[in-house]
Design goal:
It is built from 6 helices and no strands. By secondary structure, it is an all-alpha fold.
Length: about 160
């Protein structure tokens, strides 16, 4: 996916109008999404090992990040798009590492460790799934108070 961004930058430097470059960028990203959906489809008697699961997850995250880059470029936020591009490059490096080393005997657990750690990367509200009284109690516990400590606000 990072090659898509590189091609977009080359096209802009070559004088291609930004709208055409963004349209081409979007079409290639959309094609990557369609290809990923085709590969990830469940098939009879097909089992995915942990390396395949990790690569499918990384491809989906890369497509999402690529759409974010497109949205930021369309809106004119080049700095933000560059930050997401760095994330896209990081995902490409991780995918290359898992693809090349994930099935070698010394690194057989590499994909499993990535999958076990991937839930940490997913943003989640700390109060998701809690009832209203529990959410209120969680808000109240944010501020430490004890006899020797004044109540503090952390923002």
């Amino acid at each position: 996916m990072s090659e898509i961004v590189d091609a977009f930058i080359v096209a802009l430097r070559a004088g291609v109008p930004q709208e055409q470059a963004l349209d081409a960028y979007y079409m290639v990203t959309r094609g990557a999404v369609d290809l990923g959906a085709l590969v990830a489809q469940p098939r009879p008697r097909a089992t995915f090992d942990s390396v395949s699961k990790a690569l499918i997850l990384l491809q989906a995250r890369a497509c999402q990040t690529s759409f974010e880059v497109h949205a930021l470029l369309t809106a004119g936020f080049r700095g933000g798009a560059y930050g997401r591009y760095r994330t896209l490059h990081e995902l490409a490096v991780i995918a290359a590492l898992i693809s090349q080393c994930g099935r070698q005997p010394g690194h057989a657990d590499l994909a499993d460790r990535y999958l076990d750690h991937s839930h940490i990367d997913q943003p989640r509200s700390p109060t998701a799934g809690r009832s209203a009284p529990v959410r209120r109690a969680a808000r109240l516990r944010r501020y430490p108070s004890s006899p020797g400590c004044a109540r503090q606000s952390w923002w």
